[in-house]
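Query form — protein Serine protease

QUESTION: What is the three-dimensional structure of this chain?
INPUT:
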Amino acid sequence: MNVEILQEEINHIKTRLAILENRLKEIQHYCDHHYYKRNHFYEVCAKCNKINVLYY
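ANSWER: The structure tokens for Serine protease are given below.
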């Protein structure tokens, strides 16, 4: 494969990843979280898989 083609594909994938990450943040922002998995350090939402850190 040509280097330019690879760089173009990488940039396309990075753009797609950024769109998906923004969509995930939006979904997690508007979710009414129901945390189910807990330990001393974090809990996980059953609906959107958002992780809430409990201990730093």
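ADDITIONAL NOTE: The two ends are 46 Å apart (CA to CA).
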